[in-house]
Amino acid sequence: MQKFYLTSLTQAIKEQKMAPMMSELEAIVPDLTYQYTNFLIDTPLLELKVRPLHAFQASLIRDALIKLNLGAGEKYILPTLEIPRAHISNI
Q1: Residues 48-66 pLDDT 10s
Q2: Exposure on the CB side of residue 38, measured as CA atoms within 13 A
Q3: What is the reported pTM?
Q4: Each residue's pLDDT tens digit, 20-39
Q5: Are 43 and 76 in contact (CB under 8 A)?
Q6: Of the given ranges (4-8, 68-72, 73-77, 79-83), which has the lowest mean pLDDT?
Q7: Quick one: which H or E segment has residue 72?
Q8: CA-CA distances (angstroms) from residue 90 to 22, 38, 44?
């Protein structure tokens, strides 16, 4: 079952083209172990589940900012969902 789950996640990442954003976020925050207060990201499978989620959320916010045509230095409020602050500060 775990192999099926891993294959499904990997395929979804490819189909949704999340790999570039995942790489960008991983360069900013390479260790996700302590990103959440209620559990540790301490296995490769958990990391594979969390990284695409963060990439999806960050890409939604980035796309919204582009569509709103907000310039650098402007103030705005973002619904951050569960994106770690380290990622938000680099969007």
Answers
A1: 999 999 999 888 888 887 8
A2: 1
A3: 0.72
A4: 999 999 998 899 998 888 88
A5: no
A6: 79-83
A7: none
A8: 13, 24, 24
| Structural domain that includes position 16 | 2-88
> How far out from the chain centre does Cα 61 lie?
11
Both structure tokens of 12: 């979804």
Number of folded domains that form the chain: 1
Residue 58 to residue 54: CA distance in whole angstroms: 6
Structural tokens at position 40: 């540790």
Q: Which amino acid is at 44?
A: P
For residues 65 and 23, what is the distance between their CA atoms, to the nearest angstrom? 20
Number of Cβ within a 10 Å radius of residue 7: 10
Buried b (16+ CB within 10 A) or exposed e, 25-40: beeeeeebeebeeeee
